[in-house]
Amino acid sequence: MSKIALGVAATFTAEPLGDALRFWLAELGIEGDVAFAPYDQVFPSLLDPGSVLGRAGAVVVLVRAEDLAGHVTAGSADADTAALDAAADDLATALRTSAAAAGTPHLVAVCPASPGHGSPGAHARLTAGLVEALKDDRSVHVLTSAEPYEPADPEAVHDAFADRTGNVPYTDHYFAALAAAVVRRLQAVTTPRPKVVVADCDGTLWDGVVGEDGPDGVVIGPEREEIWRELARQVAAGRLLCLCSKNEEKDVREVFARHPGLPFGLDDVTAMRVGWEAKSQALRSLADELNLGLDSFVFLDDSPVECAEVRAGCPEVLTLQMPPGAADAAAFLRHCWPLDLAAVTDADRERTRRYQEERRREQARGEMSLADFYATLDLRVTITPAGPGHEARAAQLAERTNQFNLSGTRRLDGDETFVVDVRDRFGDYGVVGLTDVRTDGDTLRAGAFLLSCRALGRGVEHRMLAHLGALARDRGLARVALSFRPTERNQPARDFLSTLPATIEPYGEEAAETAWYVLTAADAAAVVHSPAHTPVHSSGPAEERAAGPARIGSAAAPAGWAAVERIATRLTGPEAILDAMRAARPATVMAAEVAGATPVEATVMRWWAELLDKPPTSVNDGFFELGGHSLRLVQFMARVRAEFGVELPFDTLYTTSFTIAEVAKVIEERQLAETGDEELAGLLDELAGLSDEEIDALLESGLESGSESGNG
């Protein structure tokens, strides 16, 4: 079982979130420790390396606009707007500083404003400010809402009584929703994501069987269209979408042709396997075509038989059985955590197009000799200094590139970084390579020299080295040195280096692990690609797999997603989450088993079993004896007020007689007192609406009734 420590800081009392966070970590098979920074100490905790946050494996920061910048209102003065903007900038700076120092993912959640105090406008401005300030930081992530778990009823979000009593602004329902959204986002930013979604057709994309009902007989209703929209969002975010169906291909294509207004079309589909082979074989064929491992595939099918066959034949694939109903299937996809993507680059959005272009390249390569193919490829390589617009892509390349990464580095710490943009007659590859260099005496040293495998073997790597040679020569430097550290997957880099007229030299503190391949500047500038001597690698358009950061779960192996179907089908709302949390607690003696317990005592006993460290076994058990403290007391008081409509007096609570029996008695007495007052007020209101004659008639009726009663 994996482990992680979460550190939480908030501008309000957030400890009720702890139980829900621990529940979600356990649901994912993670041994989690959740520690809270002192109340309203967000900035000191972020900037102190020895704080709870500095020692955590992941950091969660919860803020409200009203706490950071005072009670500003929508349409407020310029000073209030400036205060919000300054708060967003200060918080973003503190988050970046903390994340850089700790090397851990940080998540900031902007929580809803309190009714009557905070302003929706202020909340929106703070959220937008943080999103803008942190948009290029890959270690800090902004959660703008608790969607898709947000309670449908706004009344279920805020708890005015608990906020007033203990600065606990939210209900158990909202804390459950927020914890789900927080853990879901943290997993998305710390866990490798699947790259390919493979969807069945009959019963998944449409209702009906196209082979029996015909292309005009299948039905794609509004709820089924929501599934198409979700898959279209996956394509837009950079996932490859494939189809795998036991049908005639012409029938499947005809369905698409007759529904041109659907959210995606065949142009958005990277590859298809439509026929009668086993789906496990079809998936293996797709993996070969895309040059991707099966552990990067998600397979969606409504058939339990087909899912079982794929699980047996392709255990590496994350196989998910879709619910049979269209509405349930659409909801399943919305709650399917593996389909989340924390950040999307321009390169991600272009991935499907580039795979399609690569297919055309492969077709052309098969129609002519290798030399003729390269001669007609019209390869254009542009190498420029990296600018602000390249930061996200450069960081992504450093994180993901494995096969052609000479030093295996994930860091860019040179003095200059150059990015490599490639295109040919089939299309634009985008930014696919980079070098990171510094000058050391008479040598230009490249600590990073890497290239996406979708451009590997076509001479791009040779032009990158020639660029460094020309750069060194123009600057009066004698040599170019390339850092190389062998890894399990960078054999293509070793093969490239073996073709160079280079000597190998040790250098620096890492000499035992790293070799430096050194060329004269003239030799480096003269390097050219020779197709006849190109090593054969397993190359293609695929993005390299992510190097694993500290992870919450593991998407690379299906075992890491054991809870996916349970989460996506059952834990889809705060009420369901709270029910699951209660069911997950250790078995306790329920009040019904205690002889003589009243209904109120039974309710109090159940709540204490959920809130306290030790479950009660008797109506005479005391709150503080069972591990109660002030925060749990506020939560209990809030439940009493919500359920029974009464407020408990503090002189009852902070005594040794604060037992289940005693507090139940106080609840019942207060209910009776308030009910009596309400009934009396109601009678007075009724009498106030009667005339004198009507009142006299009521009195006479009462006297007669009393006389008959006495004579009887």
UniProtKB/TrEMBL annotation:
GO biological process: amino acid activation for nonribosomal peptide biosynthetic process; secondary metabolite biosynthetic process
Domain Carrier: 595-671
GO molecular function, one term: phosphopantetheine binding
Entry-linked SUPFAM superfamilies: ACP-like (SSF47336), Acyl-CoA N-acyltransferases (Nat) (SSF55729), HAD-like (SSF56784)
Record-level GO cellular component terms: cytoplasm
Annotated PANTHER family: FATTY ACID SYNTHASE (PTHR45527:SF1), NONRIBOSOMAL PEPTIDE SYNTHETASE (PTHR45527)
Name of the featured protein: HAD-IIIC family phosphatase
Native source species: Microbispora cellulosiformans
